[in-house]
Amino acid sequence: MGSCSDRNEERKKLEKNLRGIINRLNENTIVSSVKSVGDMFASYAHNDVKEVLFDALYKSAAVGYRLPDRILIEYALFIALLHSTVSVEISSYFVENFILRFVGVISSPPDDKSLENISVLLAEIYNFKVIKASMVKEILHRLEVVISDKLLECSKLILSYSGAVMKSRDSDVLQKCVSDIHIQLSRIPKERHQEQHLRFLVEEFMAIKNANIRKWTDAVDRTLLDHYISIFRGLTKKVGKETELGMSVDDIEHIAERGRWWLVGSAWQPAMSANTASPSICVQQENTSKFDHSLLTLARKARMNTTLRRNIFCTLLSSQDEVDAFERLMRLSLKGQQEREIIHICVHCALREPSYNPFYAAVLKHFCAFHKRFKLTMQYALWDRIRELNKLQTWQRPLLAAVIADLILNKSIGITVLKVCHLCVSKFVSFSICA
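and the corresponding structure tokens:
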């Protein structure tokens, strides 16, 4: 009972802190706000932080009156900085739930200005390279399906705020967006042309030639976006750039069937498009095929459910020693979230052995010594495991303890990795070191 009460108190404290951060968010507080969220993400349960942060941000953006552009750009900058400097888990969770809410609102548009606000926010998170142009295109298509002046206004807003960037970055997508809208509008029944506002909007869209929407984009203060993009570049110039989230609206709507492949760098492709897989996907498939069938079977039993994860797993287990494993894994030339999978899989494998195997800690030691980014990933991976001790099998807990002990003794990580442990708890969880 006490532990449940403590968790509720922690949750309330987290909600209060995150709401305060969002309410005070501006150009002067953005850096400290991102740092504070990063600290909370390291100290609290990841799901709690993601849920509360999304709820606070969405409620702040989806208000009934039209928000100033500056506020919406600051929200987008905040999300982009979390995406690039804290964790792609946070930005991914935000985008998943934001898109689901957006699609839900489209089916029953409100009379207030909340849909306009989230339309502009969608455009701005594209401008900051959190999502791809293809996702913006999908949302525009959803807005076109049911023709109404409200939804056309939102389509115009999205193009007005993202059009200038899209023209320089993804001109082919912009051309397709405008072309698709023209096709949809040409099918409107003649009787609907009696609606004055709708007729005016249709004429505006149909007047666009060669995807030239400069009349709309010029109506938006571009200097404001340029100013915040320069801030973003300045704050992330020393950080390894995260790529845009690769999922589509359709992927988000079918997470139950397909999983969150964008979080683990999967090479998932729909069966119908298997022939058009990218070169990098083909390389991963070729790499996987060189391993023994028995090793691939073991990988599947270990729930290595993507090509990337199987490739890392098989490379790790087929190595001669820790040095060979490190060198072969580095030669995979993974980046960003894909690279971080190496650490998570090493920890996963260490906890599946029948008895403690120091090989995995030795491999992890090499990665931690190579670059500090691996130390940070290691810290988060171990924190996640420590917080979920009750979910581990009894025989796995000593294995986790032994891995942590080895890494601390080798100075690969600091003893501060244990700061998430609640040493004074009413229900003691066994956590003994292996002999």
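(Above: one complete record from the training split.) The longest helix spans residues 2-23.
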